Structure to design on (279 residues):
């Protein structure tokens, strides 16, 4: 009988070791759900750290991203996964943990990069590209390619991609950011804003309070979708996974919630407007 090749034997042994590790982890998770033993919790977290590291390195999109920071942030997602996982729910822990770890790291990267101000020349290039895209789209009858944009501006395609990256990452604008006008002069963004008065601020506070009260009056299913979407900043896909429903159902519940909120707020405003009318 021919002997089994060493490479196949090694593969079988590695798979056997991995399976045993998963089985042990599942046993720990079952025990932790019942006992909430801190020592057991630490053991599960330590055993799952390689998963955090793999995800962190996979999401480190730039060489300057601090992978160690991503690992720390991902560990927060891992801890949440350990504390919230239900072994009898049918899902695998690795799948559940991957979702939470990835979500924590992506939220961190989004918030971090939103505060990074791009170099001025890239901001100006981004503005030029946006105007050029509009002109070329009108001329060609379609959206231009990166190569066509680079050719028009006589710059490398890589430079176009850098400008697009600025647009993708820029979600917050600093109030002291310098803006240029047609006359060539500059002024800060805050100088272009309308002076807010006390009454306007009070109205905004009242509106926020009214919205919070209206959300509390929503039915449980609608209120939960609104809170997960706008307070926990989850995508519709993430909300669907959290609630165990489809993304289409999440979208329908959001539409229903908006309609219901409009009715509630409109009804709450009526007594105030009528009171002001007759005072």
């Amino acid at each position: 009988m021919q002997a089994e090749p060493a490479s196949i034997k090694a593969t079988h042994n590695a798979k056997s070791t991995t399976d045993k590790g998963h089985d042990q982890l599942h046993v720990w998770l079952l025990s932790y759900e019942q006992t909430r033993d801190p020592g057991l919790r630490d053991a599960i977290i330590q055993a799952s750290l390689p998963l955090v590291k793999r995800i962190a390195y996979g999401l480190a999109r730039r060489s300057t991203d601090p992978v160690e920071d991503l690992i720390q942030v991902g560990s927060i997602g891992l801890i949440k996964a350990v504390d919230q996982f239900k072994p009898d729910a049918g899902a695998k822990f690795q799948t559940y943990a991957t979702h939470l770890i990835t979500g924590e790291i992506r939220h961190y990267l989004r918030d971090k990069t939103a505060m990074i101000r791009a170099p001025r020349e890239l901001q100006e290039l981004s503005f030029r590209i946006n105007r050029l895209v509009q002109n070329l789209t009108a001329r060609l009858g379609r959206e231009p390619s990166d190569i066509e944009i680079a050719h028009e501006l006589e710059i490398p395609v890589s430079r176009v991609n850098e400008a697009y990256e600025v647009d993708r990452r820029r979600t917050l604008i600093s109030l002291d950011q310098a803006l240029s006008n047609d006359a060539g002069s500059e002024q800060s963004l805050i100088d272009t804003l309308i002076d807010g008065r006390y009454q306007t601020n009070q109205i905004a506070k009242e509106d926020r309070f009214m919205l919070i009260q209206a959300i509390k009056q929503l039915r449980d299913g609608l209120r939960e979708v609104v809170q997960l979407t706008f307070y926990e900043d989850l995508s519709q896909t993430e909300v669907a996974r959290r609630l165990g429903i489809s993304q289409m159902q999440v979208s329908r519940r959001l539409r229903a919630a908006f309609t219901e909120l409009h009715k509630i707020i409109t009804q709450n405003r009526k007594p105030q407007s009528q009171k002001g009318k007759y005072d």
Q: What stands out?
A: The chain has three domains: 12-114, 120-192, 198-278.
